[in-house]
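Hi X.,

You mentioned you wanted examples for the new student's onboarding notes, showing what a folding record looks like when two proteins sit in one file. Here is a clean example. The first protein comes first, with its sequence line followed by its structure tokens.
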Amino acid sequence: MSITPISELNDRARDVFRLVVESYLGTGLPVGSRTISKMASLSLSPASIRNVMQDLEELGLLAAPHTSAGRMPTETGLRLFVDGMMQAAEPSPEERRAIEAGIVENGPIEEALSAATATLSGLSACAGIVMVPKREPVLRQFGFVPLNARQALAVLVGQDGSVENRVLDLPEGVSPIALNEAANFMSARFGGLTLRQAGEALAREMELERHALDNSARDLAARGLAIWSHDADDRPVLIVRGQSHLLDDSAAADLERARQLLEQLEGKQEILDLLRGALAGSATKIFIGSENKLFSLSGSSVIAAPYRGADGRVVGVVGVIGPTRLNYARVIPMVDFTAQTLSRLMR
């Protein structure tokens, strides 16, 4: 259905529509004409309001979930409200301080992103999500620690001081000397390179037979690089925090919707595909209900804003997932401010 332009609604229709939407977003309940008539800003009788609400329903902006139960905005109506009528409120000083304090500047970037997501989740009462930028560690040192005759602990130390361990299966007969040789070779040759660059360099040396390793040590070097590279490819690039916020009192009345939403959050690849759509833009994006097929069944909304790296390019997306009756005027600026704060951190 095409969305009715806000300019085509007369003043009376706009006022009634705005009050219905704001009341619904605040309570999650359908709004009746008598409730609207008692609001001081509107001097219309309940009968006149009912007629206006009927007209708005015929335009596809309002719907009546049950007979004589009042009206609530449709997804089309919510889109019209967000795009054309909503007055966004800047985050309060307290909210700004909470977001900035929740982002730890020292330590791995993943920790800062996770903290930012948890803070945003708590402030918005939604599930917080962040797409972590893919980045390859720059290598400094390698080590192999024997565990038993068939396994060793492969240790990678990054230039940023990060340490990662992986259990590596060993071919039969590998000696501690071979483990030490492979570690020394890898540290000397691959220090300062990324995993991809190290793998390419090892492949070139093996092809040209310029290596000074025996077969077992050479195999260890290849295995060590392969296990880290494989893990880096499979590493989650989506952090989700605060799923419990989705099980509020309103969700308890519709457990099936809540169950579907939680299941959708488990399908991280699908959410990543959705968020990648926000990578291309420079502004906050809002997906309401069935505007995105992923959340069409649960009736959920996504607000997502891109954040930038040191070179000014968009490297990730931060946002929230919640019910369609979000307080959009408050949450949208909050998501936008979190993205701006992350961008400053990444510089």
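Then the second protein repeats the pattern, sequence line and then tokens:
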Amino acid sequence: MAIHLTTESRILVQGMTGAEGMKHTRRMLAAGTNVVGGVNPRKAGRTVDVDGHPLPVFGSVADGMRATGADVSVVFVPPAFAKAAVTGAADARIPLAVVITEGIPVHDTVAFTAYARQRGTRIIGPNCPGLISPGRSNAGIIPADIAKPGRIGLVSKSGTLTYQLMYELRDTGFSTCVGIGGDPVVGTSHIDCLAAFQDDPDTELIVLIGEIGGDAEERAAAYVRDHVTKPVVGYIAGFTAPEGRTMGHAGAIVSGSTGTARAKQEALEAAGVRVGRTPTETARAVLETLRQG
């Protein structure tokens, strides 16, 4: 099992004909992902050969869904066009849209995430690496060669830390790894993924990666306490970050004692989550927890 992706997932790439879209379409195909076409209104009707895979280009997500049965869109369009791209995906009522684009204005994200929610489209991102179910499907930019299928579910704000923990635990493997993005507003939260992993029979343990800023991790801790029966291991990036500065992600800003790594660690530990101080220590905690059964 996996969450949000399966071997049957059929993926459209919005912005496939651009440099980034093409590069990562190649990588997704090489990982065995079922990419069925691209979307570019200016190049509709063309067929693009991607490493021996002839992929049609459609004028809209709706056209692509009708022709291919696609149920996932991965968005690689520039920030200025992201709102229109995601809105078009939501208008087509595609079940899942993975928004890789970074630098999208927050007011655009607020608008398209609310719009998509009304139409039943789950948004992952923006400013995220996407998600991967190793051996099944890969929607986004997560390297497919750093992990195998396994029993761990991972949800992370940070793309880099997603890759790091996947590498640290590569011999154990993952059911699904989800990079939810580090912007102040995202379409899918830690809590959404915790709920999905809790319901996934093949996910035995959950890894939650957070970072300084906001209160998402504190809210996730409360959810773990009240609703999650599987073991959860956490890691919070930013223990050495100075207060009052944005560190890397737009959402990673600390004001006073709110949003600090220490406050998040304390909230998670109070909910029974074992929290590592480094990625390597976190990976070790995961392995110890699995061995303890």
